[in-house]
């Protein structure tokens, strides 16, 4: 069996989830061979999953967090390629619960510092995992950290963009000249508009509903001062607009799940298994948009192997589930209840895996 889950956000890392599923499965079927392949889609956990799969050298870096506080982060060097995780520089988990009052001041500056550190390490290619951000600044902070200047502060979140009319990107572009940049993202939203960074993801970062049009207008003004056409490209709205900053610098977008699938050699491992097991915290129809379960299910389908999902919650019906390529999906909350699912997530997931094994193990 191939066990390839994403993290269960807020409770288990992808590695911990894989271990719990394997432990529970082995209680019922101790003779089954269980191959653990923790996964990520570019968001939190991206760097850990790749480090475990690829090895390489992890360089310690201290950057500015969303509100300017010193924050530990890392750059993973594997050959000529460097990997960084945007959530380490501007992650929602770094906001310390201050999103309601200060959401519009959260900056992506630390992500730009990570890019600079990767360039300084000598990398010729930089892969930036996007997801789980706490900022909605259009990537202005990224550009500022790399040397961009403007007639308004670029390192004070969306709020700092009020009244912006001119931006000089020359220094930022020189800073990454000759380096290939890949934005690894599961999000295909543009920077602005109805499906843009503010209106789609702003509420989960603490931006009040009534402020969403105003923040979107700030990002529109920023786009007009930089590169309006690029702001409309799929993925520009990823990580609060960090995707836009990378595209403006000449970067290209690739689904994060595809990069991880390649890194862990998932297709070959799926072909060697009888069953593929995946999972995430909340399994719903948005999982189709480049998320781990959909990506893993696609690999399983190509290998002609069934795929089942174990999730904290399951919010799709049978028809939608099969459209995602999943044979069956099992809810942790339905199995053990919300209190135990949150209070003892590893044990609860192991119990659910043991139950599922009774149906699927030969």
Automatic annotation (TrEMBL):
Recorded superkingdom: Bacteria
Chain coiled-coil ranges: none
Keywords assigned by UniProt, alphabetized: Kinase, Transferase
Pfam families, per the entry: Gly_kinase
SUPFAM superfamilies: Glycerate kinase I
PANTHER family per record: GLYCERATE KINASE (PTHR21599:SF0)
Protein name (record): Glycerate kinase
